[in-house]
Amino acid sequence: MQAATLKQNPDVATIKNILSEQMDFAAFTSWINPLNFEIQGNVLVLAAQNQFSADYISGVYGALLKNVAASFDLDVKLVVRGTVATKIANDNNVQSYAPVADVAAPVAFDAFVPCEENAFVLSAAKKVASGAVAFSPLFIYGPAGCGKTLLAECIKSQAQNVVMMTGGQFVAEFTRALRNHNVFAFKDYCRNCDTFILDDVQALGGKTATMEEFLQLIMDLRAMGKNVVLTSSVAPSALSGFDRRAQSLLASGLVADVVAPNTNVKRVMLLRAGVKADVADVIAKRVACNGHMICGVVNKMKAYAELMGSTVSLDVAERLLADTLEKFKTPISMVKSMAEKLGVSYDAICSAGRAKSLVLARQIIMVVLKNATQLSLAEIGTYVGNRDHASVLYAIKQIEKLKQSDLMLSAQIEELIADCR
Predict the structure, then answer these.
(1) Which residues pair with 292 in a beta bridge?
(2) Which of 289, 288, 276 is nearest to 317 (CA)?
(3) 251 φ, ψ (degrees, to nearest 5)
(4) Exposure of 421 by Cβ count < 10 A (0-12 exposed, 13-18 middle, 19+ buried)?
(5) Which of 84, 86, 232, 401 has the most other CB atoms within 10 Å of its CB?
(6) CATH 3.40.50.300 is right for the domain spanning 111-254
């Protein structure tokens, strides 16, 4: 009886209500609710904002729409707004979205210099660039300067039909689309691709509306068999401003970390940039493990060679990069640095003084040298006032006893060890 009543009195509100009950809330809100519903005779006409949306809805939700319409003895017709004479409850009938122009040059995977630890993430990136993969999203994370953005740029250059944004750009563009009333066009732009890349996803943290749109975007792209690549400074579980649902979705594909460049990687990067081998060998050991820093070093050396009209020798490089290169740490420099941090003078450390605070500082320095260097006990003794082997051994045993009951002392020693390594 109720079914017969529905067939005699089809109602748009009732149809939409039934669809909302049979669909995921986010999917209904993103795709079905924005459609213009109109019953023309025995046909339910659904007007989408553009052809992409009409094709997607027809392919993913077509069967559901037909079943629900059939319960009212109606056929379904999907059209694009502006192609039929229907009254649209939206003054933005034909939406358009113009992304920021992309002027970046293509980047090949050869530009990324891998170490053994990064072989896995590099292989995963190449797989994504070659086409559809079983895992999506590919979540790449690591510290600044490790090569996350470079890998993303490589994927963008090698894959087909790619949309790439930074996290900050996504927030800004989504906000602009809301303000300009063309948010549907922005949604379609992000979905009308084979691979979507978002660099620095952590920028979305705490931005609720943008986050919801982004998560729905990922789910829609996955449902369509598209690839998603995300980069971040931290793993999904450590993202700040992301709830557990968001973190679990981001970690549901393949999570791969990128480690900072080691000495060999830095050396290869410098050699590729045209730095002389002897200079590259030294600089690679003394520049920070940061790809951005290495690029800065290369740019500075190239600028010097161009402006001065001469090649950069090792002496020139060390003078030119004095503010960048790490200083070599000698045992004496370590002792002097630790003495300053412990509030005593280097001369006092090397003296025969037996004040309690001085003895403790001297023993701490001996323990740090033992843990942070390859020096023998006898060699350690020579750097703290020519103490003998037995004195150093006694100092180490005394400090080990104190560390068991003094957590602050233990933490202080660990910090000094880290500074000397």
Answers:
(1) none
(2) 276
(3) -95, 5
(4) exposed
(5) 232
(6) yes
Structure confidence at residue 102 (pLDDT): 63
Structural contact between residues 201 and 232, judged by C-beta atoms closer than 8 angstroms: yes
Percent helix, strand, coil in the chain (nearest 5)?
55, 10, 35
Q: What angle do CA 364, 370, 375 make, to 5 degrees?
A: 135
Whether residue 99 has a cis bond before it, omega within 30° of 0: no
Distance CA 201, CA 191 (A): 17
In our burial notation (b when 16+ CB lie closer than 10 A, e otherwise), range 125-136 reads: bebbbeeebebb
Q: What CATH class is the domain 331-420?
A: mainly alpha
What's the angle, vertex CA 146, arms to CA 140 and CA 147, rounded to 5?
65
Q: How many CA atoms lie within 13 A of 232 on its CB side?
A: 23
Read off the pLDDT band of 163 (50, 70, 90): very high
Residue 4 is predicted with a pLDDT of 44
Pairing of strands 195-199, 138-141: unpaired
Torsion of CA 31, 35, 41, 42, to 10 degrees: 0
| Stretch 337-353: mean pLDDT | 88
Q: Which residues of 293-314 are buried (b: 16+ CB within 10 A; e: fewer)?
A: bbeebbebbeebeeeeeeebee
